[in-house]
Design brief:
The structure is a homotetramer. The first copy, chain A, has one domain (2-311, 366-374): TIM Barrel, CATH 3.20.20.150. Chain A has helices spanning 2-10, 39-53, 71-81, 108-128, 149-166, 192-202, 221-231, 256-268, 291-311, 314-322, 326-337, 342-351, 358-365, 367-374, and strands at 14-16, 24-25, 28-29, 58-63, 84-90, 132-135, 140-141, 172-176, 186-187, 206-211, 234-239, 279-282. By secondary structure, the first copy, chain A, is of the alpha/beta class. In chain A, strand 10, helix 7 and strand 11 (234-239) form a beta-alpha-beta unit. Chain A is globular and about 60 Å long. Chain A has an 8-stranded parallel β-sheet with strand order 1-4-5-6-8-10-11-12. Chain A has a two-stranded antiparallel ribbon with strand order 2-3. Chain A has a two-stranded antiparallel ribbon with strand order 7-9.
């Protein structure tokens, strides 16, 4: 148990600045009280999550949503609050110019603009000390014939190469894929194979991001995890959960068993430690539930799945697998999954001087009421703001 | 052929006021030049579509997006332009109050507000002469346990009953279903079975709406069409097309063969004529393509699928089916589908004094340039405006 | 806890005779040692499952797979072994005549043959004391146009009506739906709505069967459970689990959280007790794993999900739901799900004089080795045998 | 038009020996009269398809289904009938040993047996003059934990490497992927990315096979086609069509527009000619329809989709794409798709001395009745025989 607790104590989960802002669907964004109005306040919220959970010490930024004049100051602000800047997420999908795509747009002027933004993001990484450039492209087509599938790959490859070349020592390019939305006929990086192939072409510091909500129905995500780990190309997760499309619900809310299976592959490959370089990020939209407790809940869900994965009896599992004992091997996995790990995690938190129940502690602390009172005037942050 | 042309000449397709306004995804709405700023201008656009196609004589309204002070004047404006007001679509999903649902909300005050809006919509039907109240509820849950599935059905049934009771002579309640979005764990009317069951409870003037984008992957839509026609409960279509979720692309753009199969069931049941009471509506979002030509294209797609369905050799089909001739029966259907019906439709249009190529004629007529120049100032219409 | 244990003690799960026989995919059936060679031996296996679990006192038969000369003797054999005959499953899909369908076949002679088989099954119910006639039709089409969708519904309705009329006092007709397979364009009862509509037409003793593997991707099964319970039309479950299609894996193996949510709706509607009339059946194929332990594992999985559902704090849940506390309500549900109920169930079994670990007890008892040795010669039972 | 006809005249479609044998679902195989009893008769049927269509000059074999003592004699038999032996398909899924996998099995003895079979298949290629070794592995897992995902990749890679090393001059290894079935939790080559990565590791003569029925719902297959063509790694197609899973219906029967889009990518990449090295194969199961006419129909469907793809106005398409004219570009594609190409193909056949209507000509020729009369006694070929 002490080894398991040690592994859990070392775990790092990154929360996204935009998860604290207002979000919604195409039908409606329902604003919430106390939502941050700028990146500084988002970081305050992220730091609050870390204060109660102890495992969320970094926060991802989204540019230009989180653009500030002085990034060094923003990094210091984070440090003052006990957290650090994580990945820099480029946004090349909300400018008027990107209606038909960014880096894969048929118009070279638009592509130039998009790549310049990517290069600016690397500049921000330099200033904030961020290691990871996370790239998700909304590029794609709505109608068959709308553009040339192959030419778009050529343009994408060119943009990625220029960006990759700009990376500094110790910086990485993380390429995300997504089956659909906002493009509805095809996207330009629809699946892990496409992201993987581009990363191979780029070089060793290009890695794939798995957003758990970005797959076709029935896709076995833990297979992809295992495959990319074997190939040395898994860079990060964007955790969330879904019943249908890219629903962006709290991770572990829709299929906690799947999350456990994913974490089992991570543990099995010894990829949980920060040294392994996998960034475990959240990417969620809390459309109807209060944001900070939802992020805390999500962090706990990842922690619980991890604890269960650490409980798997690896030797017994390997033995049953080797013997072709189908039911026995499955039972070893299920035994771990069926264990209630909440007492163990409460104990771990107590060891670390944290409240054993982070959600309850947050609710008691008065932070929500305070920011709701303070954060009036100005404009609440949201997608596009 | 003359019978087929006669059937095609009688066809009626309804276009939606909101299809002329700006739309987008949760990531971005890209505005377009010349987009209407109010319901009057939307009706002008709908009338333009009818002028070039000859088969789109009605336009659906969406309340409160299309709320005006004087509905009689709006109806007269439509009539002056050569069209009429079609279905009234209620909107109980964009008000702050509806965050956790409208007619199925646990809060009775919210439910009252929602039902009052539905009753107001019937009032607007009275004033505009509209026959159909079209109801789509965004109600649903994002998380398991969030609310009680069964209690929500009870509340929904109560709201529907009160609304149904308010209908006047010759008015109908059309109930739409949708698998997901904006709710991501469940919706309160997720499938045709749910809508059908509520319609049975309500009475004969309650009918089901099939939105072609609102199904789970793999759902056979023409089966539902055939089943509801047999049960006398098919009220309307919301036509659009999709590759993944509720993509709201132009009807016939993603799977033209499916559209043909749907129209085949309509023709087979003799349900094409206005007398049959099926409302053939479009419900689409032209996020990146110009809206009026996209609506024209959509109308033509429905027309072409209908023409092919009318070409099916019903006697040969029935004979092959009766004989268990699998390949022969399929071939009869495919023969019709593989026929190029564009010459026939061009001929029909020429007979009716229309340009044989409505898209080209629209582009030549200068309407797009004119409205782009005229419609400046004010706020362009869009979802939520 | 004593109430929960009482509820669990009363639970009844029915196992299928064909689950003990060899099964496989279209690619290959891998035979297993000790598989039964006739219905008598299948019943022996079912009785063994009941002996170790205490909650599987009935076994479904499949006709003609389980046809015998003397059904009364078969019922007595079951009784001698401590179990009883459950539902009678009709098979109208394996005879040469049914290539293009059974009750929906265009050929009236084939339909007559199929209906006669259904009537024979009612006869067998009379002789075995079975309450439930379970009907699943493989009827459907592989190609568009192959047959008339509507005419097939008419034929289906006629066959169901004749069968329903033959039911005796206290007998029920249970109608199962399935999205696809073995028909690949459409089936004649593809979804719950179709089954429900036919049941409504038939009368109060016609009820819907939910096979958990028979839905389109993304279908919310617990919604259907809740809806049918509200409508008084849920007759039975065919439990199994799936990742893709109708995979027929062990129930709870693919998505244990979904199984819990289903059982939560059952408990919430007070439909767990035998008095409620819901038949909780397994319908699985143990293609690669040993069959008896797999059935035991499946029974335990249902039991565990039920125990968790019984642990839900209904008052706290209702309060959070009423208050619109999204995270709070979800947390109440998850608290129950995250509880390790295995100790509780072990205790229950000890109370009942059973081994607390049925799988281990079965492995120790020597039954598998004994039947492997004894059941040589003859032909092992399987699908189609 | 003459260029289009020339391109069509050069087209080559390969039919599968097993498509002429009996097939079915796990529920039932319905035998048909006149079905071949051995590989020699299968080749006779394939030659018949070629005689009427003129574009099906090769036939794929499946080993051991098509094992014979003298492969050179079999190749001569084919040559005598006017066709040649195409790809050799290895079968490592039907032997008792492969219950838990073949090349990825945890048991090294089973792996040895499987690899030996693959090497034998290369031997058969040497003897028959076949160029392509087509590998599909049924390997996979039914239950989470059943085996180690990563170790299975290692074993798979090792088996592939040994097989690849055995290839002779001008021989290729074609690796097929499949999402699921017969394994239901994961397969070991579930998607194109996995096949692609293994091919990269193997070398330039390892290429990916796209079976059009082997994807998750919503997968954009033509994107994969375009991507693999760009990467120089598309080796072959297994054409068929599907509504749900791997339904193996006639190609073009479920979604003819998709088939057209696939062929559009082929034409756009100039990959239609035999010189480009893409093998266009059928892989279908004619469960309920007569097999030879179904294969003819399938060949015609591919031909018709190809003809439409050749009709696309490439210059107009490129111009509209470059200008960002979404509707215009889509219209160029749809114009080609909506054209009735059957007269053109009839003309092409007449030019080649073939009957313009191959299906009708086959029905008139008496072949079906003759083989039904002749092929009595012996055992009809089928999956597994």
């Amino acid at each position: 148990m002490s080894e398991i607790k040690a592994a859990l104590a070392e775990q790092r989960i990154e929360t996204p600045s935009w998860g604290y802002g207002n979000s919604g669907t195409r039908f409606r964004v329902f604003p919430q009280p106390g939502v941050p109005r700028d990146p500084w306040e988002k970081i305050d919220d992220a730091a609050t999550v870390h204060r109660f959970t102890g495992v969320a010490p970094t926060v991802s930024l989204h540019i230009p949503w989180d653009a500030v004049d002085d990034y060094a100051a923003l990094a210091r602000h984070a440090e003052d609050r006990g957290v650090a800047i994580g990945a820099i997420n480029a946004n090349v999908f909300q400018d008027e110019a990107y209606k038909l795509g960014s880096v894969a747009n048929p118009d070279p002027g638009v592509r130039r603009k998009a790549v310049d933004h990517l290069l600016d993001c690397v500049e921000i990484m330099d200033r904030t000390g961020s290691r990871d450039l996370k790239l998700w492209f909304a590029d794609g087509l709505n109608y068959p014939g709308q553009d040339d599938l192959r030419a778009r790959q050529d343009r994408l490859a060119e943009a990625l190469a220029e960006t990759y070349a700009r990376l500094g020592e110790g910086q990485r390019l993380l390429l995300e894929y997504k089956l659909f939305e906002p493009a509805f006929y095809t996207t330009d990086v629809p699946d892990w194979g496409t992201a993987f192939a581009h990363c191979l072409d780029l070089g060793p510091r290009a890695q794939v991001v798995i957003d758990t909500g970005h797959h076709a129905p029935g896709t076995n995500i833990e297979f992809i995890v295992a495959f990319l780990l074997r190939a040395g190309r898994l860079g990060a997760f964007d955790f969330n959960s879904r019943f249908y499309a890219d629903d962006d619900l709290m991770v572990g809310a829709a299929d906690p068993f799947q999350l456990f299976r994913i974490m089992h592959e991570i543990v099995r490959a010894d990829a949980l430690t920060p040294a392994a370089g996998i960034a475990f990020m959240l990417d969620q939209c809390h459309n109807i539930e209060p944001k900070i407790p939802a992020v805390i809940r999500s962090v706990l869900n990842v922690q619980e799945a991890t604890a269960k994965a650490l409980l798997v009896d690896a030797a017994a599992l390997a033995k049953a697998q080797q013997e072709g004992d189908v039911l026995g091997a499955n039972a070893v996995l299920m035994d771990a999954y069926n264990t209630d790990v909440r007492p163990l995690l409460a104990e771990l938190r107590a060891d670390q001087g944290l409240d054993p129940d982070p959600v309850a502690a947050f609710h008691r602390c008065g932070y929500a009421a305070r920011v709701a009172a303070e954060r009036v005037g100005g404009e609440q942050a949201g997608w596009g703001a």
